[in-house]
Amino acid sequence: GESVGLHLPTLSVQEGDNSIINCAYSNSASDYFIWYKQESGKGPQFIIDIRSNMDKRQGQRVTVLLNKTVKHLSLQIAATQPGDSAVYFCAETPTGNQFYFGTGTSLTVIP
Amino acid sequence: EAQVTQNPRYLITVTGKKLTVTCSQNMNHEYMSWYRQDPGLGLRQIYYSMNVEVTDKGDVPEGYKVSRKEKRNFPLILESPSPNQTSLYFCASSFFQGNDEQFFGPGTRLTVL
Q1: Full pLDDT tens readout for chain A, 111 residues
Q2: Which of B92, B81, B1 is nearest to B45 (CA)?
Q3: In sequence order, what are the beta bridge partners of B42?
Q4: Chain B contact for A37 (CB, 8 A cutoff)
Q5: d(Cα B48, Cα B7) in Å, to the nearest integer?
Q6: Which chain B residue is nearest to residue A31, measuring alpha carbons?
Q7: Which positions in chain B touch A32 (Cβ < 8 Å)?
Q8: Cα–Cα dist A109/A88, whole Å
């Protein structure tokens, strides 16, 4: 089966600092990658995505970087805020129908 | 309001008693999917559907059934639940296949005794 892993299960950052959450994936055929945020008691919420023909994509305060050579994905959050505290998941799909999620990184923002 | 709804939100049942968790979306999405979330394992895909009457297995389909008779509904059926199906279940939908933003429901916490 697929294996999507995260480098760190927890991450604590000071409010205002930048956060970097990493993810390794195993299937070189995957061509679409997504980051989700899950707050306590809620379902995952889409943050940003990237396709394999790109290596960087920016959103509002978030940037996703894709390194296909080493099968690595990262999510950068600029000027982290208390509302960013949540669990972050990466996901990959080689088919557009079957999705494989990482185990999640819990981000805690310290005021 | 555009949303994915699931019912029930919480359910405690006993081994072997058939149950159905409903999922409905009001966004006219073609793609729908079910996931289970367990501590330390992240989300794992159970089944997905690309459109009405089209369903396929995900990574962990054993012990589950689904149907897609209408575009908006995608129920998850446990014919004979077992304790290892105790989990948090999420339904999700997206406009076209999965190469698009998936909207998740609020989750159904199932306990099988």
Answers
A1: 344 654 558 999 999 999 999 999 989 999 999 999 999 999 999 999 999 999 999 999 999 999 999 999 999 999 999 999 999 999 999 988 999 999 999 999 999
A2: B92
A3: B38
A4: no
A5: 18
A6: B99
A7: 98-99
A8: 13
- CB of A49 within 8 A of CB of A33? yes
Q: Which chain B positions have a beta carbon within 8 Å of A49's beta carbon?
A: 101
Which member of A97, A100, A102 has the closest CB to residue B50?
A: A97
| Residues in chain A closer than 8 A to B44 (CB atoms) | 101
Are A43 and B90 an interchain contact pair (Cβ–Cβ within 8 Å)? yes
Alpha-carbon distance of B72 to B33, in angstroms, equals 12
Mention every residue, 6+ apart, whose C-beta is less than 8 A from residue A48.
A34, A35, A57, A59, A62, A63, A64, A75
Measured distance CA(A44)–CA(B90) in Å, rounded: 9
Cβ–Cβ gap A43/B48 under 8 Å: no
A100 in contact with B at a CB cutoff of 8 Å?
yes
| CA-based nearest distance B101→chain A, Å | 6
Render A35-97 in DSSP notation, one character per residue. Answer: EEEE-TTS--EEEEEEETT-SEEE-SSEEEEEETTTTEEEEEESS--GGG-EEEEEEEESSSS
